Amino acid sequence: MLDYDLEQRGEASLYEYVYQQIRDDIVAGRIAAGEHLPSKRAFASHLGISVITIENAYSQLLAEGYICSKPRRGYYACELPEAPVLASAAEDADRDSAPVGLNAQDAGGQPEQFAPLSPSALEAARLWQSALRATLTSEDEREIFSPAPAQGTARLRHAIAHHLRGTRGMNVNPDNIVIGAGAQLLDTMLVQLLGADKIYAVEDPGYLRLTRIYQAMGCKVRHIPLDGEGVNLGELLDAGADVLHLMPSHQYPTGLVTSIARRYALLSWAAERPGRYLIEDDFDCEFRLAGKPIPALASIDAAQSVIYTNTFSKSLSSALRLAYMVLPDELMERFRRELGFYASSVSSVDQVALARLLESGDYERHVNRVRVRAREVRDSLTTLVRKAFPAGEVSIEHADAGLYCTVVAECEAGGNSFARALMHSSIPFIDISDCFWCTDGASVPENSTQILVQYDDLSPKVLNTLELQLTGALCNLSE
Q1: In percent, how much of the chain has pLDDT > 90?
Q2: Please, what's the b/e burial string for 336-347 (b: 16 or more CB within 10 A of its CB; e: otherwise)?
Q3: What's the confidence (pLDDT) of residue 36?
Q4: Using an 8 Å Cβ cutoff, are 53 and 44 in contact?
Q5: CB 4 within 8 A of CB 47
Q6: 402 secondary structure, DSSP code
Q7: What are the pLDDT digits (tens) for 331-376?
Q8: Are the CB atoms for 207 and 187 separated by under 8 Å?
């Protein structure tokens, strides 16, 4: 029976401490691959804590891939490949597409039409307005109106480093952070830094604009299919890639979370040859709806082969054009030497305003409110689908991974009715089959529809309309 001293947990919650201890024991080999973990009830009784605490710890370990569940047999430790990793980590989703402005006009000179802001977007807009007012009225004019250095202001870089330490388990040197006007700009800067002569691999299905960005920079691009654990390692090896751009914590559009075993294998792949890098796109990391956020791939990287990138587009607004990357030491030196001549692409006013939000805790409180709202929508959508399709012919996958879920529907058993109901309800959605670059590669299973739906698009009124539309579609189907 595993035995842990709960008095040593410090400020960590009980479930978080148990999770950390089991995780570290698996990484260190003290719990062998394939070893049977204690049952939840027996383990809880042994430690003198509640079963729900053990259940939460096991759920987090299961989500990250440290353990697996076997029906009617319990939980077992997973085998982890050898890789240069840190032994213990501390504790369309279009990344950049800017919504159009109120007075914007299209190419033909006609005023554009604008959809109303979602509750989260409206809250973020008001939060940003308040931050800007406070910045302009209370901050030193010399700070907010002086040109920012190429990397970004020191104040914002320190605020981001502190934020990453608390939320992503990353011990980041602020001097290794680069601020940029959106993820697309940072992607192009990375090509300048790494070289357009490299072969860049991207996930398929994935973010199609990323392929176009790399191709526009003159790069060779390889599309790597996914399996149940993440990027298919065999396909990656065959591609001869130098750089892999991936979303390990919440893949777009599938919602897949890369398992810890696959993460170790990818780190090992990157460390095998000088000049190989993993670009970790962590765009939706803060919004995991169950348990702790999945630790960043960069938080276990001991060989400095991970380039961490993130953006505030999902949490605040894509209109703000605020993103950043964390470079390994060698690349940071190269950045200063070769790209340090650039002027900062983000205004000093915006950088100070964002730093204020992070320093004050207002940003974290905003994220928590968005997360609570998303959980409520998730529960309502799950209830609606179970009620309409009690036989399970339509199901929701990856419901807890972030701000969107995947709706999987069997086309011949009501799935088409669900898709039609979505369209009649004017709910935006993405057919995942449209996110494949390679049509001859892996695809959505035959006779199945996989749809990406964002929680922020589903207000109670919209969900009620969806239920009415769905009821009507199913009645017509049965007639």
Answers
A1: 54
A2: eeeeeeeebbbe
A3: 94
A4: yes
A5: yes
A6: S
A7: 999 999 999 998 899 999 999 999 999 999 999 999 999 999 999 9
A8: no
pTM (predicted TM-score) = 0.82
212-216, 326-330, 434-438: least confidently modelled range: 434-438
**pLDDT tens, 248-258?**
999 999 989 99
